[in-house]
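Narrative of activities, Objective 1.

The group set out to show that a structural description can be obtained from nothing but a protein's sequence at a throughput compatible with the screening campaign. Below is one input-output pair from the validation batch, recorded exactly as produced.
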Amino acid sequence: MFAKDTAPHGLQPFTRIEHDLFVIWDAADPSTDIYLSAAVSVAKALLFRQKATESKSQGDLQGIELAVNILEKQLKGLEDMETWTPRSSRTAAR
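Output recorded for this entry:
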């Protein structure tokens, strides 16, 4: 994930290169939240596909569930940061 000001020139807001996902996100701009949400969804899908092809065992499914839960907690943390940031400072940063 890149902040808007530090993203490499020419990088699209949401880019996937094989198994790597790159997102440009701006905490002050709620319209960029969709890129972060999309990245989490794609990461989940890639993880499920990878694990499904590696093995069909029940033990692997537990690892997938753990990874998805970790991703969801990280997303919740980012949402909390936006909630804690006063709206006036988010608007002024634009």
